[in-house]
Amino acid sequence: MIINPTIEHYQYNLLKNTDNSVLIEMEGWADKNNFPIVGRLVGVFLEMMAKSINAERVFEFGSGYGYSAYWFAKAVGAGGSVVCTEADYLNKDKAEQFLRVADLWSRVDFQVGLAETLFARTSGYFDICYNDVDKIDYPSVWLMAKERIRPGGLYIADNVLWRGRVALENSSDVFPGWTQAIMAHNELIFNDPDFDAFINPNRDGVLVARRKSD
Known about the structure:
Blueprint: H1 5-13, H2 21-33, H3 39-52, E1 57-61, H4 67-76, E2 81-86, H5 89-101, E3 108-112, H6 115-120, E4 126-131, H7 138-145, E5 149-158, H8 178-190, E6 195-200, E7 206-211
Parallel strand pairs: 1-2, 1-4, 2-3, 4-5
Antiparallel strand pairs: 5-7, 6-7
Helix pairs in contact: 3-4, 7-8
């Protein structure tokens, strides 16, 4: 655990007003199926970040079954759009099931395929680009996304602390090269003169980078 569990428990207790049947079911499904999601603390953080810049157009690199999209879709409002990308049709079906019940599906454009390929088919700027693909691809996704974020917009990436491995000189990796890729990704962003960046250490580390205004 990166943050003391007692502190996390306290934070969760402060979010009781976010409870609803859809969220409880989505989180229960993740627990039952050992499916990684950002969780309630990060979800509320994503919604708040999106609202803080009046985001209306969001692109997700990696969407799973729509948990993070739930929070972004709430934030963008009825006229906004969240482009989701996912390799598994079954996850799209599960996302539609949940987000329809939440009355958010009309705000979601859920596409099945490789996130980078689908992103290349889009045009224009996004208010937020959110990265949660395989970690080996983090640097390349950043390099793609950074040019398509509007001034004042945000790049957000999950798992940037990688259970603390990024801070250790020697650590065993889940997949070869992933820790090094995340470290390279973080260094690229913090050294980019066009962005301000910060890491929120909740859960597994959430990096937020704001593109500076012209």
